[in-house]
């Protein structure tokens, strides 16, 4: 089985999480340090989430560390014990957002795996290029500049929140525009009449 080797950026981020958690857990001020039991419970909860989402097992540790990094940035460590107990708290929502963001990032990374130049396309060298050109031409005909930009950024691997930041709008608006753009292209390629939206 191939062993996962994190990148330099991943190693430095993981090291930062380990140092901050270690420092927080061994700090003299007990009120500023997260409860060791809370850290263990959060870790177990995260692992169950990664298993249920069918993420690769060799990524679970990195994913859990990323959740802790997000928690350190957004939730006071003395409130960590409440993220698994209270349903309607801001801390709980931030915790669930962190898990969801990490899970989606890993799932997207698994789906988007471009072919390396050494790998030959089995369908023929011009087919992929022709398909991309057909989609680009259709997009120029039926989509506005904003929807085209959203699809370009999506194809480049950007997440919806990143696109929203780039365009200065909300993630909900980006998701809505992306959905409408895809529907327009589907209608175009099926030859449906009266495409609008």
From TrEMBL:
Q: Where would you find the membrane-spanning parts of this chain? A: none
Span of the signal peptide: 1-32
Does the keyword Electron transport belong to this entry? Answer: no
Signal as UniProt keyword? yes
Which keywords belong to this entry? Signal
Spell out the SUPFAM superfamilies in the cross-references.
Sigma3 and sigma4 domains of RNA polymerase sigma factors
InterPro entries, alphabetized: RNA_pol_sigma_r3/r4-like, WH-like_DNA-bd_sf
Protein name, entry field = Sigma-70 family RNA polymerase sigma factor
Q: Which organism is it from?
A: Urbifossiella limnaea
């Amino acid at each position: 089985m191939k062993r996962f080797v994190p990148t330099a950026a991943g190693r430095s981020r993981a090291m930062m999480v380990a140092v901050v958690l270690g420092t927080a857990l061994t700090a003299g001020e007990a009120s500023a340090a997260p409860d060791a039991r809370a850290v263990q419970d959060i870790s177990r909860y995260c692992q169950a989430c990664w298993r249920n989402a069918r993420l690769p097992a060799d990524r679970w540790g990195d994913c859990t560390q990323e959740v802790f990094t997000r928690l350190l940035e957004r939730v006071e460590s003395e409130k960590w014990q409440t993220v698994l107990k209270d349903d309607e708290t801001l801390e709980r929502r931030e915790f669930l957002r962190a898990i969801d963001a990490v899970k989606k990032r890993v799932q997207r990374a698994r789906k988007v795996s471009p072919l390396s130049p050494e790998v030959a396309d089995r369908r023929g060298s011009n087919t992929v290029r022709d398909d991309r050109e057909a989609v680009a031409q259709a997009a120029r005909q039926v989509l506005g500049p904003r929807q085209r930009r959203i699809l370009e950024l999506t194809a480049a691997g950007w997440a919806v929140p990143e696109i929203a930041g780039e365009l200065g709008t909300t993630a909900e608006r980006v998701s809505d525009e992306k959905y409408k753009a895809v529907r327009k292209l589907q209608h175009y390629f099926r030859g449906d009449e009266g495409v609008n939206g």
